[in-house]
Amino acid sequence: MAAESWFWRWGWGRRCLGRPGLPGPGPGPTTPLLLLLLLGSVAADITDGNSEHLKREHSLIKPYQGVGSSSMPLWDFQGSTMLTSQYVRLTPDERSKEGSIWNHQPCFLKDWEMHVHFRVHGSGKKNLHGDGIALWYTRDRLAPGPVFGSKDNFHGLAIFLDTYPNDETTERVFPYISVMVNNGSLSYDHSKDGRWTELAGCTADFRNRDHDTFLAVRYSRGRLTVMTDLEDKNEWKNCIDITGVRLPTGYYFGASAGTGDLSDNHDIISMKLFQLMVEHTPDEDNIDWTKIEPSVSFLKSPKDNVDDPTGNFRSGPLTGWRVFLLLLCALLGIIVCAVVGAVVFQKRQERNKRFY
Hints:
By secondary structure, this protein is α+β, with helices and mostly antiparallel strands.
């Protein structure tokens, strides 16, 4: 994607783009003072995606260096990965291929946002393609394995863009995006499409689109958000929003893909990492963030991992409208109980008066 200027609006999940040929310039030197004042209270949560916040040492951007060679500055790749002038192809549309690309530099940012421009396409028709792409923020790099071309029992964060339903009994609609946080003790179950270890997910129709497809991963103060732009509408759509996530610093960003009996082209066009300007408390600043164990503060049983007919994942943190509905139901329940109690009490009082 060309250089962009946009800002994240929490709650709406949209971006205001300033790229050529598209309406809606993002905030910049000409932003009205009133808008700046209105946004002042949440400025710490906003990145406009400009070069000031772009971390080039963790970003993969065209024009790529090292085209036609087996290496490139800041990034290593292995397996079937092929570097061209237009994209990094993790796997070709061929069976039994695995490939990955990994950043050289460990990331020591506490708050960050990754934008991924990708493309999954191939000749396979419905349910005759696979397997998908994985995006990683993990302790170990360049470790091939069975999980979309990378190792199992990893330490860190994985976002899976899965295109093939291995579980024939699932009601989930594919392609499907899911999130997993692992401290090395969990194994990804391909036969169940990772359902037992999934934190949250959503259906996302990103395969064989005739326009650009994007994914954004944001991590800030324990909140992990995944959003997509797949409709060529230049706006982000909510996919995953989880709180209570703890990720250490000093891990590596990467992407991998794998094919089996079925295949697809899995391409990465760019990976752009932005630093989020967020203030932390003195206690948070005194923590050795490199020693944090990857974890999530809420727990759930595998039996909670149940799909609904729309393909959306039901088990997840109670946030936003779910909390509102829960509180509303609780309030209505209290009111009903109070009314019923008052009626019963009044009836008893009237019955007692008859005995005097």
